[in-house]
Structure formats: structure tokens, C-alpha cells
Design a protein that fits this description.
This protein is of the alpha+beta class. It has helices spanning about 145-160, 205-210, 220-225, 235-245, 275-285, 300-305, 320-330, 360-365, 385-390, 485, 550-555, 570-595, and strands spanning about 5, 30, 35, 55-60, 70-75, 80, 85, 95-100, 110-115, 130-135, 160-165, 175-180, 215, 245-255, 290-295, 310-315, 370-375, 410-420, 425-435, 440-450, 460-465, 475-480, 490, 495-500, 500-510, 515-525, 525-530, 560-565. Strand 7 (about 85) and strand 8 (about 95-100) form a beta hairpin.
Length: about 600
């Protein structure tokens, strides 16, 4: 057998495929990017191709590999596991996902990686491939860009949203954190795509607890989950954990990337069977359970009440200081003050747009004869997106837009209000910390429109502001200004942004279902805020959801269609244009990575 040592294409920090979309290099294996690995990066750029490559270093094979004979990966002479072999793509060909995340544990260290024993689809053994893979050195927080790091930390602290808390958080000083779930180890700091960050460092759960809080980490449980399996630990380990603390902290995470919609599957929007079973056993075993949601998007929430989870904290993908902010919130050093920017339903099908998106199973049923190449999505919910739907149609949701709890309490009231123009207004809002802990609060002002002909949600956010950190008993006055531009609505018939005659009521609060009427103005005559032209009209009429006829307009998904390659004019988009767009995003990301 001939060894292929270092037989790969030249690299300049970008994907080699950008130099040739269909390279026929004779090397059995080649690199997509530099053979370096960032321990603080849970999802490398390869995950933009497919999220299954999370935790992998990918190489490219010139041969199609038999998935039944994928070979074995050896790191520093020790067998690890078989690589991930997915179906070859038109753009990238055959990728080999070498799983390294749970095997590379030290910064600034070079490892020898050997891939051997794979066979191609013709039954021929592929030459082994040996290369050096080096982990990047650690850059300590605050060393290179201290001002930037301070902002990163502030964003992580203030962006976390406390969704539920039944006298569970914060944890007592000095208490032990019993972590459960692979996500305690695979704690994501960012997403993929054009919004991807290339972290200079990453503070995750272990470092956050040990270095930045008064809490103690259950190291035995943490080590158990380095295998990245969502399973309940052995009985003796659980017994020792209960002796340390009666509270368990369960972690849930999801990768997120441009070009990948959240699948309506288990492991996507829904919990996996393993995650559900883990939560069931944890809640049945421990007196208190805290769930940490390390996700970039809403996921199902029925399990929170089903298993009686006591507290739920949404960290989101909180950046390089995410683990520190999490630890500080858990021990009460930081009081959570974030509010939801979206609405979390109980179930995916509670969203009115659900019928407009085809699932894989639905596409498969429509695929008769030639395979489906494309699917169009026609949005039918109109302006009733997010809270505007749930609030207007009075549909129950787990957590509405604007929801977010605190470790303290606040009193909010209108101090004064005055008109600034025909219908604009300026309000002074007094916020008082009535609790026992320091904290920040967000005030949100909604508008309710009466008397017009245009479709309007029941409430529309028109202004918001956040206080400074208020000590117990301290108050602050926030000024909210609402101009005509915040109150305008679009009239297709008039091709203009207008304000209709009628009454505009202003409601103060947080989530739209927790508001109080504080002010109103009457508009005598129609106001044309700006005259424009109708642009980019859809090529066919779209029936949109209307509160005036909800039964007759509720989205059915009938206008969402599927097409074969022939019906859509060929396969150019799938083979060249769309993959090229993905490659361009990767190219820009790799440039930023090398800056």
C-alpha cells in the first residue's frame, strides 16, 4: 500500500474549490483549508455545507467512498472512530468528516492524523492519508482588544433571557453545578454563514464556572459528557451528584447556519428522543432542574411543562464570553435582563406560516418519477408575523415576544405625555426597582389603531428603552419618542405610507399580553407620511391572512409548489449558482479568519 504523505493542493487560507469547481486532482485526499483547528469553534466552516460536520475537520476525496467501508481515523497513533461519509455533492464532491472535537483537547499542539482502510464504491481500497493537524494557541480575554472584549461580555450578559424561574435561580454561592447533556461540553458561541465570528478565544461552560463564578463544577459529570452523548449517567455517578447538590442543570444546543433552515425534525426544532429521555430522568431524580438553551432559534417548548422543569435560561449563541456570562447569571452576580426578540410557540404547527414550508416527507410524497429539484415558498401570513399573530388572534404561546424575567421586580408608570405633532407623542416613563437585587429593565410601548380600513395587528411595537442598572429602591425616568414614521402603515391602493383617521392608543409593558393603556391621541384626517410607488409586486395574487376573515384566509400552503429540474428550467441553480453563493460566503469568511 502506498502512503500519501502531504500530497495535497496549495492552500492560501481559502477553499481550494474556489480555484476550480470540479477539480480532478489525482491525489486521493486533499485539504479544503489549512490543517489547523480552533478548540473554541464548535462548528467550522465545513458545517455550512452540512450541519452534520459539526466537530469535524473535513478533507476532500477524489473518489466516492463506500459508506459501508468508510475506514478508520487514528490520532497520534490511537484509533478514534470512523469518519462521517455523506452523499457527494455537485459542488464539493466527496467530503470526509474526520471527527476531532472530542479528541483534541490542548491549545497550540500538533497532532498526527492518519486516515486508512477506506474503500471506494468500486471496491478498491483508497491509499491512506497522513497529515499534521495543529490546534491554535489560546488568546486570553482582554489582552489584545480589551475594549472589544468588554462589549462582548456586556452583550452576552444582557442578551440572556430568563424564560421561567420557580424559585430556582440564582444558585446558592458555593453550590455544585451538576451538568447534564452533551451541550454542556459542546457549548456554542456563534453561528455559521455571513454572520459567523472567528473567535480569538472562547469561554465556555467549564471555564466560566471555574474562573468567573462562586460555583463549583461537577467535574465527574462534565467528563462523562465529553463523549458528546445525551444519555443519563450510571447510578453511582448520579448518587454522588445528588450528594453534592439537589439541583441539576441540563443543556440543549443546536447548530445554526445560513443556507440551512431549521428542520422540522427531531434534533432540529424538536428534541431528540435521547434529549427527552435525559430530561425525563433528570427531573424525576433531582429536586430542581434548570434548562439552558444554547440555541439561535426557537425550539419546541411542551417538554418544559411536561417534565416540570423549574427554570429555563435562553443564552442564545452568546459570543466569546458566553460561558462567563452564563456562570455569572447562574450564581446571581449578573441579573438577567434580556427580552425575547421573537415568539416561542408550544409547537411548530402553532405558527401560521407552518403550512407554507414543505417538510422532507411532504416533498418525498410529491416526488413521483423525476426527483424534486426545487420548492417555492409563498408566505401567506401577511403582517401577522410572530407576536402580531398570537396577540391579535389570541392564540396561546409558551413565551411571547418581549418576555423575559428578572431576579428582582420593577414598577413602571407614566409620568407625563405630550403630543409632538399631529399624532406623534413623547412620554416620560418612571421605572423603579421594587425588589431586593440590582437589575435592569426594558420598557416597551405598543400602539393600537382604531377606526381605519387597513389591516392592523392588535398591537404594534413603536418604542422601547432599557434602564441602567438600578439598585433596590432606585428609580430612573426614560423618555420614549414616537414620531409619525413609527405610526405609518402602507396602503397599496394609494402607493403611500399613511396614518388613517381614528384613535391611536398607547400601551406600556413588556410582552404584548402584559400591557396597560397609558395614553391615546385622535387623528382627525388622513396623514400621508410619504408618497411612493408600488414596487416588486408578486407575479400572482397572494391570499394573505386577515383578522377580518380568519377562517377564510388562514394559510393552507396550497400556493407552495415543487418542481423537477426540467420544470424549473434545468439544474444550473442547484449545480452552479446556489453552491457558488455558498462558496463565496465561505471565501469571505476565510479571508476574515486570516485577518
Amino acid at each position: 500500500m502506498t502512503k500519501k504523505r502531504g500530497n495535497f493542493m496549495p492552500i492560501d487560507g481559502t477553499f481550494e474549490l474556489l480555484a476550480g469547481l470540479h477539480d480532478d486532482n489525482q491525489a486521493a485526499m486533499s485539504f479544503l483549508q489549512k490543517p489547523v483547528y480552533n478548540l473554541d469553534e464548535m462548528d467550522r466552516r465545513e458545517s455550512m455545507i452540512s450541519l452534520v460536520y459539526s466537530g469535524c475537520f473535513c478533507i476532500k476525496s477524489s473518489k466516492h467512498i463506500d459508506p459501508q467501508q468508510p475506514g478508520m481515523v487514528y490520532i497520534d497513533g490511537k484509533a478514534t472512530e470512523a469518519p462521517l461519509i455523506e452523499k457527494p455533492t455537485a459542488m464539493f464532491g466527496q467530503l470526509v468528516g474526520i471527527i476531532v472535537r472530542k479528541y483534541l483537547l490542548e491549545y497550540n499542539k500538533e497532532h498526527e492524523v492518519r486516515y486508512a482502510g477506506a474503500y471506494d464504491t468500486d471496491g478498491i481500497e483508497i491509499s491512506e492519508f497522513i497529515f499534521k493537524l495543529k490546534t491554535l494557541p489560546r488568546i486570553e480575554p482582554g489582552v489584545k482588544y480589551p475594549e472589544h472584549d468588554a462589549i462582548v461580555l456586556q452583550a452576552a450578559r444582557e442578551g440572556a433571557v430568563l424564560l421561567k424561574n420557580n424559585n430556582t435561580l440564582p444558585l446558592s454561592s458555593g453550590s455544585c453545578v451538576n451538568v447534564f447533556g452533551a451541550a454542556a461540553v459542546v457549548f456554542r458561541l456563534g453561528c455559521l454563514g455571513a454572520g459567523k465570528i472567528n473567535p480569538r478565544y472562547g469561554i465556555r461552560v467549564k471555564e466560566g464556572i471555574e474562573k468567573y463564578s462562586s460555583l463549583k463544577l461537577n467535574q465527574e459529570l462534565y467528563d462523562f459528557y465529553t463523549e458528546e452523548r445525551d444519555v443519563f449517567p450510571p447510578g453511582d455517578m448520579v448518587t454522588r451528584a445528588k450528594d453534592l447538590s439537589g439541583t441539576a442543570v441540563v443543556f440543549i444546543t443546536r447548530g445554526s447556519s445560513e443556507a440551512h433552515d431549521v428542520p422540522m425534525d427531531k434534533g432540529g426544532y424538536y428534541l431528540t428522543d435521547q434529549e427527552r429521555e435525559l430530561i425525563r430522568k433528570v427531573t424525576a431524580t433531582f429536586g430542581k432542574t434548570v434548562a439552558i438553551l444554547n440555541v439561535a432559534h426557537p425550539i419546541e417548548t411542551k417538554w418544559i411543562e411536561e417534565y416540570d422543569v423549574d427554570a429555563v435560561l435562553l443564552t442564545g449563541l452568546s459570543g466569546m464570553a458566553g460561558g462567563r456570562a452564563l456562570a455569572e447569571i447562574l450564581d446571581g452576580t449578573v441579573n438577567p435582563s434580556g427580552k425575547l426578540p421573537n415568539t416561542w410557540a408550544y409547537d411548530y404547527h402553532d405558527y401560521p406560516s407552518a403550512p407554507n414550508f414543505l417538510t422532507k416527507d411532504q416533498i418525498a410524497k410529491k416526488s413521483v418519477g423525476a426527483p424534486i429539484q426545487y420548492a417555492t415558498t409563498v408566505y401567506e401570513e401577511g403582517l401577522y408575523v410572530g407576536y402580531r399573530y398570537f396577540d391579535t388572534f389570541q392564540k396561546p404561546a409558551a413565551y411571547l415576544f418581549g418576555h423575559g424575567l428578572s431576579y428582582t421586580t420593577f414598577d413602571t408608570k407614566l409620568k407625563s405625555a405630550a403630543k409632538t405633532d399631529a399624532c406623534g407623542t413623547q412620554m416620560d416613563i418612571e421605572v423603579t426597582n421594587t425588589g431586593t437585587r440590582a437589575g435592569k429593565e426594558v420598557v416597551m410601548l405598543y400602539a393600537h389603531f382604531e377606526g381605519g380600513e387597513l389591516e392592523q395587528p392588535d398591537k404594534r411595537l413603536v418604542a422601547f428603552a432599557k434602564t441602567k442598572e438600578l439598585l433596590p429602591g432606585e428609580a430612573q425616568i426614560l423618555c420614549l419618542e414616537v414620531s409619525e414614521k413609527r405610526l405609518k402603515s402602507y396602503s397599496e391602493a394609494e402607493a403611500a405610507w399613511i396614518i388613517e383617521p381614528g384613535r391611536i392608543s398607547f400601551l406600556l409593558g413588556g410582552a404584548p399580553n402584559r400591557t396597560t393603556l397609558v395614553w391615546s391621541v385622535d387623528v382627525a384626517d388622513k396623514i400621508i407620511v410619504s408618497q411612493v410607488k408600488n414596487r416588486i409586486a408578486p407575479p400572482f395574487p397572494i391570499k394573505e391572512l386577515s383578522a377580518k376573515n380568519s377562517n377564510g384566509t388562514y394559510p393552507q400552503g396550497e400556493m407552495t409548489k415543487v418542481y423537477t429540474a426540467e420544470e424549473s428550467g434545468g439544474s444550473f441553480l442547484s449545480k452552479i449558482a446556489v453552491p457558488l453563493l455558498v462558496a463565496m460566503v465561505m471565501f469571505l469568511s476565510s479571508i476574515l479568519w486570516n485577518v
